[in-house]
Model the fold of this input.
Amino acid sequence: MRYSCGSVEEDASGGSSMQAYDDFLDRVRDIHRIGALQGHLGWDQEVLMPPKGGAARSEMMAWLAGQRHQRLTDPAMGTLLDELEQTSLEVDAQANVREIRRAYTKACCLPSAFVEAFAKARSEALVAWQQAREASDFSMFQSTLEHLIEMTRQKISYYGVTTTPYDVLLDEYEVGMTVADYDPLFSGLRERLVPLLERITLAQERDNPLVLPDELRFPVNKQEAFCESVSKNMGFDFDAGRMDASTHPFSAGLWPGDTRFTTRFDETDPFSCLYAVMHETGHALYEQGLDHEHRFTPRGEAVSLGVHESQSRFWENQIGRTEAFWTVALPWFKEQFPASPDWDAATLNRIANRVEKGFIRVEADEVTYNLHVMLRYEIEKKLFNGDLAVADLPTAWNTMYESWFGMKVPEDRLGCLQDIHWSMGAFGYFPTYTLGNLYASQLLEAMRTDLGDIDALVASGDWTPMLNWLRPRIHQRGSQVTPAELIEDATGHPPSPDPFLNYVEKKYSALYNLD
Amino acid sequence: MRYSCGSVEEDASGGSSMQAYDDFLDRVRDIHRIGALQGHLGWDQEVLMPPKGGAARSEMMAWLAGQRHQRLTDPAMGTLLDELEQTSLEVDAQANVREIRRAYTKACCLPSAFVEAFAKARSEALVAWQQAREASDFSMFQSTLEHLIEMTRQKISYYGVTTTPYDVLLDEYEVGMTVADYDPLFSGLRERLVPLLERITLAQERDNPLVLPDELRFPVNKQEAFCESVSKNMGFDFDAGRMDASTHPFSAGLWPGDTRFTTRFDETDPFSCLYAVMHETGHALYEQGLDHEHRFTPRGEAVSLGVHESQSRFWENQIGRTEAFWTVALPWFKEQFPASPDWDAATLNRIANRVEKGFIRVEADEVTYNLHVMLRYEIEKKLFNGDLAVADLPTAWNTMYESWFGMKVPEDRLGCLQDIHWSMGAFGYFPTYTLGNLYASQLLEAMRTDLGDIDALVASGDWTPMLNWLRPRIHQRGSQVTPAELIEDATGHPPSPDPFLNYVEKKYSALYNLD
Done:
């Protein structure tokens, strides 16, 4: 349903509330357009911006944040929300009112000057983090991070929360989730993942695992061509988007018809690029599949980070790390890398699924990945509960890592400086990655019920039935309902970790011939 | 001088007018920030945007144009301007008030809906032009162009002008210039350029001119490296800017620390790329040299298109098309293109200065260039004075071209579809290119008076004295004074065509051994 003058008569509540809703929608679209500009400049900052452009960029980001805040907290917005909440609205309109009410309520707690200063601090921190990471020296980033954490605490206190500050942050990235939800979830996962990891490690030692020969080189332009084939076959429309390179792969659903993602290239390892591309294409397919009739409103935007991550994880892992996938991708791989060993699909799949106690989260396999997330979750919880000083962060990180993974972190680049998130002030973000893993497995189960043998489908090379399954159930629905409702509507069950645990245990037992 | 609270006491007019000026400046900066965003999205649209991004981009451009218009025409702006015009202000503040008054007065004539519709039409027209040019078929662009011209006429009538509509457009791109100024200027140029062209043509036929051997290839990445060396030596700071590729080379001074220009690559002709790069670097040096203390105000921005073009033309022609330049560039050229014939600097310079009655303006030499501009000027004059229908444009173009150049235009791509300007609604823009040529020669003369033998300076390889001469006289002054005043301050003489005509006659007489 479109909200135009033509639909006035269809609405039982009459012309006046439709007028209010139209006014509301005009304001919402302006706010979201500013958000889209922030997204565009953010994309540009990571992909293209020259080093000396940082100062003016920070200033511009601060200004946009201020403009957005000013419009969101306009008293007229409060009046409209009050009126619309008393009105009978259809489901899409309800969603917009619900989402904007939440944003409005929080924004009204924050002074404009604070919002601008925080945006500026974040944009500047990105540069400081890049330099510290380059030098692999946390001390170069420490004061910046302290400042961001201090500002984040300030934000929480503006919200009037004094007892459980970290919950505020968790809720910010996945509405409704708190420490009380995550703590048992994570400990449940650890209980089954850690023993699984031990069994796989033993099996790998026994089986002499496959690794890439050191001397092999995979040229960047060939990797690009190979990954484009995969991305296209997943359904990414390159006429409505781009693939570029950046240090930290990410995707940005700028606006209708223009969705961009990035990857990175390592000439010694084409798998790194491939799975970054499958991951980011998963995100990008969600953005391309949103209902553009509702553009620049919550209804036309992705519902949550957790659901977003389910889309990237689904394609990267559930589809991409299977022998069925490699059956299809093998000829593309051979076309681009004719000099590589004569691997078959099963071998490539084993390489792609090698479990390793590595240092880097984004390169982690499906078994260890959630342990990396938990580590960050525990660190953030301590930081915001006052149990950890920023100066002690590297030690805390390295100690926890060693106790879980049994290895010493040799340098900050491979430890607490590896992720971009904290430099963006994104505290409480990481746990949504685990939610994404759980949702992805749950979606796979439901998809199997509807479409039958997914391995056979993947191996057929025509992946459109899977995309067509996701489109109406996830992508096109935008923020029509809450994340948990969306998952339940799509799968018939409320969110649960069981499908993931069953999936991962079954998959790796088969791969490693575990008893 | 900076406009901060600290400078209140320095101002004789006291605190209240400083308060008014600060308020004014806040508003001006907001308006210019929106302009900077338009510039950024415009750059992106030409360099990166995927095809299907056009619709949402047009919508966003229209929205930004509307936002900018709304702020510029805010009645409070009128009140502030009235007050500040009664106040004693120092010269930089005066410049800002003068420039914003002109923009305000014009903007107030235009309804918001018109401004947004016009911005949308322009952004859409860009796509239509690209397709028509690709197909080399003017009929595909005709109705779009008719629509833009109709909207432009509408704009002129909103301004309340009924008699000389084209003057309004000319003034829009170079303040103070009208048909009454350009007509005698152009006929004066034609009087001396056409006979010069005939003499050169005869001399070339006699001398068996140098051309590039057809079979030579100059790889794109080598051209890129060669051109970067030249651009760097001119003084472009690659840490504060970028060079990219686009169909139509252009430069965009996005904001402090981030100035971008583009070029294009033709594997058979490295000169095309080189002179595009020198031209655009000239523009970009102006942008990098602006006084960033005054960013996002007219005082901190380039004064006019004519002066901007003087900077690009100065480097492209006065410096780049000399034997002295090639003495310096020869080793860079040989490093990148070791397989090219063993040309010396004199030979490369003769290739670079070959005069040709070509079809394409941007590839034209210094003798024919202004004839290309005049042709567009005459066409525009007829279009807006009602003497030419859009449907008849190709015929009018081709007829005039044949009568001046003695050749038939074989297809629209090489004729009336070659330039991007009309698709951007930029009618009245072309004549500023000729002003740029005139100013550039005048600046060269003045520079020679101050710095002595310019050829020797160029040949020395250290070009910083020239950039340092331009910085305080042109770049750093922004819009402090009018274009004509700026040229007069810098050169000691009001703008005049004589230095250009003397320069071009002397240069080509020597190159072609004319009597």
Observations:
- The interface with chain A takes residues 30, 33, 36-37, 40-41, 44, 48-57, 60, 63, 237-242, 254-258, 295 of chain B (CB under 8 Å).
- Residues 14-47 of chain B form the longest helix (34 residues).
- The CA atoms of residues 122 and 424 of chain B lie 5 Å apart.
